[in-house]
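User: Hi! I'm working on a homework problem where we have to compare a predicted structure to a textbook description. Could you give me the structure for the chain below?
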Amino acid sequence: MSLLEVRGLKVSFDTSDGVVQAVGGMSFDVDRGRTLGIVGESGSGKSVSTQTLLGLTPGAHIEGQALFDGEDLLTMSDDRLRQIRGKDIAMIFQDPLSSLHPLYKVGRQITELIRQHEPSATRDQAHKRAIELLGLVGIPQPDRRVDDYPHQFSGGMRQRAMIAMALALNPRLLIADEPTTALDATVQAQILDLIRRLQREFDTALIMITHDLGVIADLADDVLVMYGGKPVEHADRRTLYYRPHHPYTMGLLESVPGSSGAKTRLKPIPGQPPSLINLPTGCSFHPRCEYVLRRCPADIPLLEPVAGDPSHLSACWLPHDAVGLDPVAEAKRRAAAGPGDAGEVSG
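Assistant: Happy to help. Predicted structure tokens:
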């Protein structure tokens, strides 16, 4: 059994405009020492899915199961969830300035976290631990900076402080929600190297949420691609980069600068992400897909194995058994062969 097993997670919110289907049936596993990358455009349900696991989506309608070491995070009591949150499962948020309290010193915030989960620790012991953690994440002169306020830290140092806080109690699962989005390239590389090193040192399971495929290439063992609140492809990193099946995954890879050659123009995905209140019928990606088949607007595809590989799943009506072939060309060939095939390409 994996450390975290999520099955059929659905999250929705009632609004004045209608019901927002933020997450529509998400399943994945994460084990110790492994990294799951969750990638997709803004509004695809990446952050909501993991925040729901920690009870950070009040007012949401939640279905499914999320077993953490055999306990269901979605049905456990608030008291038990508070015991796990921060100690066994920690989270690094996208904007550390809004996550750190501006009126309390950084060291005090780390100290309070430690004492909340380890009541036997004295204030002096927790303070020394806070200094040790700040040094561990590469903050210079940690014995002095521990008494600084968040606004006295640079963006990269605030993110390091958040990582120190997240690792204070050696959590078994670390969730990083776009931790390098607002940082420059040099600091971003330093933060990713730090997360990778600390993960190896503590054998921590990691969920990395990002829209940056370069980050995924550096860190992830397995990748889950989300679109319109639903997973559309799930595979190990190498398979996803070299043998993608879903047209949305192909589009993400082709839109990365330099992916098609240094002198070629970027190839963006046309159109806009769908409204989570009024999702398109059938496959939610079909209005933007250049390979749309006749059945795509009518039927919702399920995540199914590609080429018989149970670890590579794709929710697409393109042929799943075309090993080493262009799935679009294969769909056209089968359509031309006669009735009973995958469906005629309409585009």
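For your comparison, note the following. The first helix runs from residue 46 to 53. The two ends are 44 Å apart (CA to CA). Good luck with the assignment!
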